[in-house]
Amino acid sequence: MTDLAVLKAETRKAALARRATAHAAAPGADAGLLSEVLAGYRGAPMSGYLPIRTEIDPLPAMAEAAAHGPVTIPVIVRAKEPLLFSRWTPDIALRDGPFGTSVPEFDDFIEPEILIVPLVAFDRRGGRLGYGGGFYDRTLQKLRARRATLAIGFAYDAQEAEAIPLEATDQPLDMIVTERRVLAF
User: Fold this and answer.
1) How high is the pLDDT of residue 152?
2) For residue 159, what are the domain limits?
3) Is Coiled coil tagged as a keyword (predicted)?
């Protein structure tokens, strides 16, 4: 394992522990700030996510946004490929997807302009550390090559790290929204 891979693994382990503690303390953390941010983009196609494990829950903000325009969730097609995004509504039927995720029972793919991105850790420069599969990095690179794409990280405040160890392929976030604050880059 390279020094960078070791550093990322150590950062990920510490951040997951902080996230678990934050989630246990406030499992229904308020997505109000996320709703406020998304209100400025009403009608634009966007992607959220269905929270797994101890991820902060964006569903209230996604449901509100779905009343104004298309909302999608990520679909993993295969390893080392960009994500696709299928239309989501609060009452949509779901099926099991890879890595403990759920996806719409029937695919209705839409390309989002705004992505609410789950994460393990973030820093004040827009650095993001995910689970290590590179799905969002590949996806953001692909989307940003076509047009402006806004990436909003959604996390507990406790997931902030001093600095995220980054590689050239790591895509930056444009904004971080936590249960307490909004950071724009």
Assistant:
1) 98
2) 3-184
3) no
